Amino acid sequence: MNAQKAIDPATTSARDSAPSSTWHSQMPDDKEMLRAAVELTRDIAAARPGIYWTDMLASTAVGYGALAGAILVGNPLIAVLLGLLSALALYRSLLFIHELTHIHKDALPGFRFTWNLLVGVPMLIPSFMYEGVHTQHHARTRYGTPEDPEYLPLALMKPWSLPVFALTAILLPPALLLRSAVLVPLGALIPPLRTLVWGRASALAINPQYRRRKPEGEFARMVFWQELGCSTWALSVLAASIAWGWRPLGIALCVVSLTAFLNQVRTLVAHLWENDGEAMTVTAQYLDSVNVPPPALISWIWAPVGLRYHALHHLLPSMPYHSLAEAHRRLSAHLGEASTYRKASYPGLSPLLARLARSTMTAR
């Protein structure tokens, strides 16, 4: 069934006719859906180590292998194709950072350390940049408000904000290199700079108002070692580039820039971005989020590691990514085509981007 047809006209009309500042807060929770989401998925709620380890390690090996090929091969066309493959594989590897924020710390022994060693530190995006940040996005009273680090009312902003939002991601890799190679070491000597870098440049956040609080306890110790690893790696890469040439670093930055761009485009369609700052019910948060389930053909490529079920993830934040497809199947079958649950399903990337673009053109 076409997911667009699953939207209830009465609900849609009520939402569209209500003032944009009120429809979210006025929407009551669908208790049947919330109860079913918990009760029907208890038996698939445990992370399966074999899937996590195999997927992460294979994606990482393909990503770095293709990157090495892109750097070493002489044929420009083959180099470009290998670069594209590397970007897609590393994109998948990087998105395991999302899983790290939700799985229990004892669920996958050694996974966080290995991911940081192989992916987070070499890509200069260690897990601390998301841990302790992303959970605020899921907080019941923070989602969609100015205190949400991962929310902007993009649908209510000007049309030019969308391409700017997407294209600025290309600058992320050189910015991360500057952060780890220059700003963090200098911050160790200059406390005000350290405070600034931590508060403004140490979180994967899109809300410019967000300021990160100083880390404490065990988390602060983890941050120290991850920062040390990133700075050591960044300075080593720069030293090697000075000694042996800048071509490998340039190609690597291009590949990671493409990865960052892909993630930013995915972010554009992770939500409808229609909330203007008010607190929302769980159901309203769900309907402001997006599922792109089958029969969408390539959503697993541009929204990997379970992120094509982003709305479902907001119902069940701790559900492991490999169980989301089965959870979606069960809930769809149990609740039916006319249910609230089906209203968060969309047919693909292009329709969602078009919807968001139209929203910006009519925003006041």
From TrEMBL:
Source superkingdom: Bacteria
Polar residues composition-biased segments: 10-25
Location of region: Disordered: 1-27
Fatty acid desaturase domain location: 79-339
Protein keywords: Membrane, Transmembrane, Transmembrane helix
Gene Ontology BP terms: lipid biosynthetic process
Molecular function (Gene Ontology), one example: oxidoreductase activity, acting on paired donors, with oxidation of a pair of donors resulting in the reduction of molecular oxygen to two molecules of water
TM spans (from-to): 62-91, 111-130, 164-190
Any Gene Ontology CC annotation: membrane
UniProt protein name: Fatty acid desaturase
